[in-house]
């Protein structure tokens, strides 16, 4: 039976996984629940104080549509201070407190690494004590470094995420060639110090939905590793619904947005903005089909960080140009 390791313990003799500092900034699986961003030394602005939240997480937002007595009135275009029924904001604190239990687990055979967040762990299995130090830059370059100190022989199981189709694992300078077992790479740990380097070769990719998700038919979304990306009005202008992308269009990684925390790359690619000039009169609702097409440069940011730079439109699912 697999059990999770307990979070930070005051008693040094207890099995413990210290909650890593700012770990939520480094891993996308936790990102979506952190609806507000923390104030940091680099970002003293009150927008990053961590006291504003989203309750629902829509995949497309047009602020003027989020009004009372419409089907979108439950969607807020900006982060809110509080809610009438607020179950989600307190869960942020609970998740942070139990984060160590998501990162590591153990059974009678060995230790499991499930999430790649910079942290340390200290546990004992079959009278063999194992200390682990993990340094993760998964969201930046797809790499994870592990330092393991063990008083005796042991087993370390490292999860291979679904988004890593090509990965490399090197243990003490030797490349590991064995196939994962049930999604985990099994490593034999000898007494003493062990160094492990993992490169998941995380690259941006276009994703599609099952045809039964009718709202996403003929559309595509952008991911890099565990992170979903989105377009915001700030870089890409209004009327994001006019934008189309070619199937499997090339994607470039760029420097992080200066206004956002986490040091996570932005992604850029080309798109086509399609407007109907046959119905663009001031009071004209319908008209003839006279399409105007313009090639545009697009820049996407991590979806979990949207609406931290002012109110505006947001879009996850892009229309495909066939």
Question: Could you give the order of strands across the largest sheet?
Answer: 14-15-19-18-16-21
- Estimated structural class: mainly beta
**What would the principal axes of the Cα set say about the shape?**
elongated
- Our measurement of the CA-to-CA distance between the termini, rounded to an integer number of angstroms, reads 49 Å
Based on DSSP secondary structure assignment, what is the total number of beta strands? 21
Summarize the structure.
The protein is mainly β. It is built from four helices and 21 strands. The chain has two domains: 3-35 and 92-199, no CATH class; 204-321, no CATH class.
Provide an overview of this structure:
A hairpin with a 4-residue loop joins strand 3 and strand 4. The chain has helices spanning 88-97, 99-103, 138-141, 233-236, and strands at 3-4, 60-61, 104-106, 111-113, 119-125, 128-137, 143-150, 154-159, 168-171, 174-175, 184-189, 192-199, 204-207, 219-224, 227-232, 243-246, 252-254, 266-276, 291-302, 314-315, 318-321. The model is unreliable at 6-43 (pLDDT under 50). By secondary structure, the protein is mainly beta.
């Amino acid at each position: 039976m697999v059990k999770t390791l307990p979070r930070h313990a005051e008693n040094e003799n207890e099995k413990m996984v210290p909650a890593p500092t700012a770990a939520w900034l480094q891993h996308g699986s936790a990102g979506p629940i952190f609806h507000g961003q923390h104030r940091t030394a680099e970002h003293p602005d009150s927008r990053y104080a961590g006291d504003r939240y989203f309750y629902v997480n829509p995949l497309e937002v047009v602020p003027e549509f989020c009004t009372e007595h419409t089907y979108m009135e439950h969607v807020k275009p900006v982060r809110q201070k509080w809610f009438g029924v607020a179950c989600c904001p307190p869960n942020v604190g609970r998740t942070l407190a139990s984060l160590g239990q998501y990162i590591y687990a153990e059974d009678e055979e060995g230790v499991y690494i499930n999430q790649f967040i910079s942290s340390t762990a200290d546990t004992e299995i079959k009278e063999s004590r194992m200390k682990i130090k993990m340094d993760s830059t998964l969201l930046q370059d797809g790499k994870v470094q592990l330092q393991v100190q063990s008083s005796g022989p042991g087993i370390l199981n490292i999860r291979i995420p679904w988004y890593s189709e090509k990965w490399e694992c090197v243990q003490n300078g030797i490349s590991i060639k064995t196939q994962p077992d049930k999604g985990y790479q099994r490593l034999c740990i000898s007494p003493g110090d062990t160094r492990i380097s993992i490169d998941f070769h995380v690259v941006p990719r276009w994703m599609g939905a099952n045809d039964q998700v009718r709202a996403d038919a003929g559309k595509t979304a952008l991911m890099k590793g565990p992170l979903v990306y989105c377009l915001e009005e700030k870089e890409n202008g209004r009327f994001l619904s006019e934008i189309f992308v070619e199937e499997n269009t090339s994607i470039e990684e760029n420097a992080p947005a200066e206004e956002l925390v986490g040091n996570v790359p932005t992604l850029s690619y080309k798109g086509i903005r399609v407007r109907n000039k046959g119905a663009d009169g001031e009071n004209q609702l319908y008209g003839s089909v006279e399409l105007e097409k313009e090639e545009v440069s697009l820049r996407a940011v991590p979806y979990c960080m949207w609406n931290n730079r002012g109110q505006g439109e947001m879009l996850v699912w892009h229309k495909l140009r066939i």
